[in-house]
Write a structure and sequence with these properties.
With 245 residues, this protein is of the alpha+beta class. It is 51% helix and 20% strand. It has a 6-stranded antiparallel beta sheet, sandwiched between helices.
Amino acid sequence: MLRTTKNMKDKYEKIQSCLFELIPEKWDEIYLYASVIDKSGDVQTGEMYFYYLPKGLLKKKPVNVYEVPKKFNINETEYLKLVDDLYQTIKDLRQDFKDTEQDLWTNLTISIAHCRFKVEFRYDKISQEEYASYVRHIIWRYKYLHLGGDIKEERKILDKYFNNIDKIEKCRKEEYQTGMYVKTMNNIVGFDREIEEAKIRKEIQEQKAVVQEEKKAKKIEEKAKKEEEKRRKEEEKNKNQILNF
């Protein structure tokens, strides 16, 4: 059974805060996977990825954290520094388990949805074989985000997972849940992003209005020129029909 200390609760709050800061738009749900593997010489390795579901009336495709810098024109180097800080906090959380002499988990899945913060700890052995990381990602993404399985290679991985699901899901896991930490800071994109975006939209609309007015004026001018040209030709034609003596 999990024992939760104040240090751990502080880490949970920091993890939520980091996630909120890293997402540059309104969202409905967040899902994160991270593993921490102990190697010889106090060396730790692992992996981490997380997705969020943008807020909207229509269901939107989950956004991968590593797509954010390009999608929102953010400095990638600075952004990934914050991602590293998030992963370090997760490793620090694992150290808290060690300090309190609790069993060490190998990987976790964090979900934030419906005002609840949930952490699922797993204790299964993490394979270091070639492509193992890819396989884990495909299975995790399908399980939590309902994505994948459209291409042959992914379908084979998922079929194998479903054929062994009873054995896989029997591996030890524990959960921690609490209310969602209330966001009180601006995100990485910058302060007052929504205000800035509204300002930009207004400027774009004003520019479009100016362009429309210019097009309208140009059409009126062209129409007047055509009518004048038509009148002049008609007048010339009439003149040519008059015989002079």
